[in-house]
Amino acid sequence: MAATAALSTRLRNRRPALNAFRKAVTRKPGRLIGLGIILFFVLLAICGPWFYGSLAVDPNAIYAAPSADHWLGTDFAGSDVFQEVVVGARYVLSTAALAALFTSVLGITVGLLAGYHRGFLDSALMRVTDFVLTIPGLPLLIILSTVWSFGSPWQMGLVLGLTGWGGVARAVRSQALTLRERGFLEAARGLGLPSRHIIVKELLPNIAPYVAMHLLLSVIAFIGAEVGLFFLGLVPFSSTNWGVMLNQAVFSGGAMNSPDALVYLLSPLVCILLLTLGIVLFLDAIDELFNPRLRERA
Amino acid sequence: MSRQRTLVAGLAAAVALTALSACSSSAKKTNNGDGGGAKKDGGVYTSIDANYQITAGAPMNPFNSSPNMFLGYDQMRLGFDKYNPLDPNDLFPGLAASWTATDTGLTVQLQPNAKWSDGTPVTVADIKTSLAIAYTQGTAGPVAGAGGTIVQGTNFEVSDVKDLGGGKIEIDQLPGVKNLYFQRLVLSATIVNDKVYSPQLPADIWTQIAAVQGPDPAAAKAAADKLSAEGKTIAAFAPAKDVSAGPFVLTRVGPGEALLDRNQYFFAVDKVAPKQVILRHYTGNQQIWGFLTNGELDSSPYTSMPTNIADQVVKAGYTRTDAPSYVSASIAFNEKQAPYNNTAVRQALAYVIDRDAVTKVGEPVGGIAAPYTTGLIGSQTDAFLSSDQKSALNAYKPDPAKAASLLQGAGFTKDGAGQWHLPDGSPWTITLQTVNGFSDWIAASTIVANELTAFGIKTTPAITADFATYQKEMGAGKYAVGWWLTALGPQTDKAYNRIYGAADGFSVVNGKATHSDTSPANWFHTPATYTVNGQTIDPGQLTADLSVTPVADQKPIIAQLAAATNQELPMIQIWNYTKVGFFTEKHFTNFPKTGSDALLLNPPGVWMMQGYIQAK
Amino acid sequence: MTGFARRLAGKLLAGLVMVWVVVTFTFFLVHALPGKPGDVQYESYIMQGFNPEEARAKVTAVYGFTSHDPLFSQYLGYLGRLLHGDLGQSVYYSGVPVSHLIWSALPWTVLPVLTGLLVSFLIGVIAGVIAAVKRSSRWGGLLSVSGSLVAGVPSFVLALLLLLVFHTEWHLLPDAGTSDITLEPGWSPEYVGSVVQHAVLPVISYALLSYGGWLLAMKSSVITVLGDDFILASELRGLAPVTRARYIGRNAILPLFTVLALSFGIMFAGSFFIEQTFDYPGLGELLLKSIGVRDYPVMAGAFLLITVAIIAANIVADLCYTLIDPRVRR
Questions:
Q1: Residues of A in contact with C153 (CB under 8 A)
Q2: Residues 81..120 of C with a Cβ closer than 8 Å to B: which?
Q3: Residue among A20, A94, A10 nearest A286 (CA)
Q4: Cβ–Cβ below 8 Å for A143 and C161
Q5: What residues are paired with B464 via a beta bridge?
Q6: CA–CA separation, A62 vs A48, rounded Å?
Q7: Of B293, B446, B447, the CB nearest to A257
């Protein structure tokens, strides 16, 4: 009977979700800052390109120092680095968002099905998951980048998602497996609730912290991967983004050896760091939100 | 907790084991004997071999396509090409002290003290084996269509190598074949040690070569197949140790560097100051910039770099050297696609593109904005054209008004928003194609696109994933406007062959050029003939003629081709590459300086052979 | 124990099947790539200043090693040779066995990765426990954030920053290579010292990259276990803290084996970012270079090896997991 009691508390705790969310986020200033950073970059990605349509060039002001005209100086063609950072955010963020979408849909579906049903379906799904996990994603991406054009965020996001869902699926499955052995699922099953109900209503909420954390972490990983591909110069680019900037700064501008191109290198680096920090800080709130134990003891 | 400890211990053991295997696998016992006193005996010369990135595991075999073998240091030739456009047979002496061209071939006098690093002399057997290997590697023979006339071709055709005694060697050209560049081609063949390489060759190699040169086509084909199979064996061969006739011998190759010691048996060992040479590995230009700004190199090969880095390098105590590089970056047109079939359109674009500005962004240090579009680099244009001919060339200085009038004359119109429209009324847009990895082209494309867009032709750069695809798609006619390397020299026929050759639908049989607009390789799609100064010329035929004309007689042909190219603009030459190198006199003196083009186009090992680079 | 042996055999078999699938996948993927090795090289030889004729000769030599057989018979031949441990011949290095190139590069990836893993494991697990126990304090929170941040920052960003600070700014550590070439390889203190000095930055990068993973995994694991009923029960029953700590430790460290496998795989597979940044000639750099020059056999070989390493790590992790957590064995 303790199990059903736990079940109902859990459900009760989750119902005013928005309220809990607000509370979790505002509990610590760091989380607010995190959310702020994320929102800032999202806004940048949405609105940035409206302000700066096409970048002006100036062959007479190559790698100019930061000034009132150029807040972060200029690049190899005399374009404004600040504008580039702003314009470049859209590709980076939309790709990561799309990749996260593909990942979560695929990963949760596969993981829950496998973890709950076990048996043949589990084996089959896990073989596929193992395969996806085994194929090293980054090397595969760099090989694929020579065949596919990653010009649009959709293509890049799709490929990232396709190579990245294995981790989520496995985490979801293992969590489901553990939960399966826990009392309340057995209780639910004992009560004769249908599988669909158990999966969606009982398993999913309990797995949510894992998924949410995985997802936010994988967003960071996706940003790293896509920017990295551009950084290595493996992907042909048609417009600028942070990875292209890194690539140009290091391999064409000599930012590692010359102070002139340093700001050009640091600008996208700092953006990536900031965004990572924002997600990480915010992650803390999600963590607490879905992990009531943290709250109880805090 | 105990399990955790086991895990840690296991990990530690694994690490230790790996460390062991890593070290033992790369540990080669070497006995230099006199380590330590390096400074007083010449010291260490540090540089970079631009030809190959050093790879641990690659063989010490010059016939491998990416060997750990370094031209001028431990890879030797009879002579070293001076890349002299006015005399293609001009070489620095290498293992050959001197040579005389004869009607039937070449007589070579070996360096009297030429020895391998194992102390044995360089003999005719080494030369003969090396020239036989050239046949297996496709650098020698077979020459098709040799009929007693002068042949064009990049391969030499040797029928015999004779020992005349006293280090004198006669190298015979196959009777009936006359290659204008026989001397250079033979002398720049790589010479390897007979004892090391002949076991890799069949004993009857020269019989096979004779069969390839013989009259029976079936036997020739069979022998050629056999030779190329043997060539694979040779290319993959990994000698256990380096036997060098050059100033240095490879001691070891680490994953990041190669170490060469002075070859004490080298014929001019007294001229070679450094005791050791370190050649550093690099994966990209930025690493060379790092070495230079940190002062870690005595000299650097040509490296593309931005101005800020060049300044930084000079600040670090380096002196810059400039030598011509016989290659040029151009924007080429596919004249099958309208409106680029219209000469006036191409000329108008040449007037819009500010080559100085583009070069400043694309190749600010290693490039000079092309003064003319002639299909040749600037210094060659200067050398081959008279001043009258040069002043008749159009420099296409940026002139938007002229461009506009040319376009209007061709039926183009400009709307109120400043956008140009094609004669059929549709807005004119350009996709400027470039290729991933050519960062200078990519950077330059942004400027070109900007200039054209500002002029009223909306231009977007597009980047192909890799060069192979680029070449394929360009060949298939998919790009209307794209970057292309031209003016490959120093031989002018090579430069023009790059334009009026296979890529333009020309093919040459027995000295006669024919043009086919539908040839699959054709993507330039220029007309078969041009009319220049009221004269009709056939650029394909002129190019074919050029390849069988001695340099001294080439000027009239070049003048026609240059004028035609300048007027018709199958491509717009944007910049000519310059070989920019750097050296520092921190450890050594007497480096070749700007002006010594022949030396600067060769690696430092060749400088040392000629007595350059002396201890301080 | 027979159950364990059967499980091991099953895992190995599954691993082998996986290797076969990967081999097949890799083979056809790599052969679907456009471009011939020679095409790529010709232009770069020209740019380097080779005569067109020299460049052409070199390209011809490269072409000699490109197979012209039908794809499927190439595939069968490849499989057959693989069974004998033959990964084929490099095209770019005209005929050098791929395995030779890979073995030359492998230590320079495995060594820093394992060292980095070891270092980060020690630090990460301890930090994870602290972060879990002190999760309500400011320091605990900071520790967690540091872990997440370091785990999240892309490897090349870390590597670039390290390089900027330790090489460009402070000139403390070298930015390229594995050792000073003038030193004779061996067990001499100078050589070992030089190897260590060159490995510091890559190892730090690997350690930083995996540190966050250990920390977060350990932290969440400890928290989960702390909340488990049996711990509460043992607390209530008044078991000695040492016993309780053993319970917690044993159960909390469990998920780390999955992390071990994953982070080994991630680091091994992502090594090219770090190797490229530090010009460290390991497997990742070999893979990148082979992609750049379209050296299919080397590409396939390096990719295969990375995959096999991950498969092996997964099997090991899985078995460890089985040994420790009886619940999964059922």
A1: 220, 224, 272-273, 276
A2: 89, 92-96, 100-101, 103-105, 107-108, 110-111, 114-115, 117-118
A3: A20
A4: no
A5: B435
A6: 23
A7: B293
Report DSSP state, residue C168.
Answer: I
Question: For A56, which residue in chain B has the nearest alpha carbon?
Answer: B450
CA A84-A86-A90 angle, to 5 degrees, is: 105
A&C contacts, CB < 8 Å: 141
Query: Considering only CB atoms, which chain C residues are within 8 Å of A133?
Result: 262, 265, 310, 314
What confidence tens digit (pLDDT) does each residue in B80-105 have? 999 988 898 899 999 999 999 988 88
* pLDDT at residue C46 is higher than 80: no
Residue position matching structure tokens 């980047």 = B463
Check CB contact of B234 with chain C, cutoff 8 Å: no
Q: What letter does residue A202 receive in the DSSP assignment?
A: I
Tell me, what's the pLDDT at B144? Answer: 44
Cβ <8 Å between B465 and A76: no
Is C97 part of any domain?
A: no
Which residues of chain A have a CB within 8 Å of the CB of C163? 256
Q: Distance between CA atoms of C156 and A268, rounded to whole angstroms?
A: 12
B285 contacts A76? CB cut-off 8 A = no
Q: Where in chain B is the domain with CATH 3.10.105.10?
A: 325-577
Could you give the angle at which helices A29-51 and A17-27 cross, rounded to 10 degrees? 100
CB contact under 8 A, B306 and A261: yes
Residues B30-62 have pLDDT tens digits of 333 333 333 446 799 999 988 777 887 789 999
- Name the domain count of chain C: 2
Are residues C127 and C69 part of one domain?
no
Q: Do residue B466 and residue C294 have CB atoms under 8 angstroms apart?
A: yes
Based on the fold, state whether residues C78 and C142 are members of the same structural domain.
Answer: no
Q: What is the CATH number of domain A21-52+84-296?
A: 1.10.3720.10
Q: Is residue C278 part of a domain?
A: yes
Q: Provide the ipTM.
A: 0.80
- Residue A202: closest CA among A176, A170, A168, A167: A176
**Are C130 and C27 in the same domain?**
no
From-to residues of CATH 3.90.76.10 in chain B? 23-30+53-244+595-610
Question: Domain residue spans in chain A?
Answer: 21-52+84-296
Specify whether C209 is located in the same domain as C278. Answer: yes
CB contact under 8 A, C306 and A181: no
- Widest CA span in chain A: 78
Mutation site, A10, A95, A138, A296, interface C, largest C CB count within 10 A: A138
Q: Could you tell me which CATH class the domain B23-30+53-244+595-610 is placed in?
A: alpha beta
Last residue of a domain, one of C83, C115, C138: C83
Out of B358, B443, B462, whose CB is closest to A76?
A: B443
pLDDT bracket for residue A1 (50, 70, 90): very low
Same domain for C71 and C204: no
Q: Residues for chain A: how many in total?
A: 298
Closest to C274 measured CA to CA, from C119, C111, C125: C111
What single-letter amino acid sits at C249? G
Residue C23 included in any domain? yes
Residues C167, C235 within the same domain? yes
B345 to chain A, minimum CA–CA distance in Å? 25
Q: What is the pTM of this model?
A: 0.85
* CATH at residue C257: 1.10.3720.10
**Is residue C94 included in any domain, yes or no?**
no
Based on the fold, state whether residues C74 and C174 are members of the same structural domain. no
Considering only CA atoms, which of B386, A44, A130, A140 is closest in space to residue C313? A130
Among C83, C115, C136, give the residue marking a domain's end: C83
Residues B260 and B70: beta-carbon distance below 8 Å? yes
User: Residue C113 belongs to what domain range?
Assistant: 103-324
Under CATH, to which class is B325-577 assigned?
Answer: alpha beta
Q: Phi and psi for C139 in degrees, rounded to 5? A: -70, -40
Residue of C nearest to B22 (CA): C107
